[in-house]
């Protein structure tokens, strides 16, 4: 069986519980086709770069999948039918990442920092504007 990373974006007006139910339904479709989901990460409600079907935000979810191509094709067919899913992308990979994804690591790092910008000020003698 092949290994895939799959990300889908759900509409902003559905709840997190509905996104989890949607993920469970997709997992069931894959398991009926002989595949399995090895990792499921909910990344949260994030802003989009541009509007998609009048939505400015979307719920992001990552799935690591171990399945055959027909099972993945059936899952994608179900996603095209579903109105709650704005976009999805499936990429075949040689091996799946262990541990949290880069998005989850970023969230952990942001939580640890505890503060935002403004803690560091310009040195007292430097009056030039800073560029970041």
Walk me through the structure.
The protein is an alpha+beta fold and 132 residues long. Helices cover 32% and strands 37% of the residues. It has three helices and four strands, in the order E-H-E-E-H-E-H. It has a four-stranded antiparallel beta sheet with strand order 2-3-1-4, covered by helices on one side. A hairpin with a 2-residue loop joins strand 2 and strand 3 (55-67). Helix 1 runs antiparallel to helix 2.
H/E element order: EHEEHEH
Number of helices: 3
Estimated helix fraction: 25-40%
Structural class: alpha+beta
Largest sheet: 4 strands, antiparallel
Strand content: 35-45%
Termini separation comes to: 46 Å
Radius of gyration: 19 Å
Query: Within the largest sheet, what's the order of strands?
Result: 2-3-1-4
Could you list the spans in which at least 5 consecutive residues all have pLDDT below 50? none
